[in-house]
Sequence to fold (120 residues):
Amino acid sequence: LMCSCRPGGGLVQAGGSLRLSCEVSRNAAHINIMGWYREAPGKGRELVARIISSGTTNYADAVKGRFIISRDNADTALYLQMNRLKPDDTAVYYCYVNAWTPSTGSVDYWGHGTLVTVSS
Fold:
């Protein structure tokens, strides 16, 4: 299984929008969770949003009402629509997948990250 972030990060002014995308080469793996994390300068990695196999979504309080996580029906693409961006949203954003196969059990996979910079 692989997660690949498509270009979608970049520089945006406060109040603007960006959309992040992640391709997932899942093969025969069962996807348990798909999500986005971010790591701001000098801070640890934190959950931004996730979507569970049932379709339930969870968001960090800091992004509720502004970000929307979605996926395609085949669990091969994950998206994060980011609206009303703030300078505090500046971070490297990582795609995350937890997947299960009979041979590996549940394993976490990470994309390589994409930088989002929000100017004030």
Summary: The chain has a mean pLDDT of 92. The two ends are 38 Å apart (CA to CA). DSSP finds no helices and eleven strands in the chain.
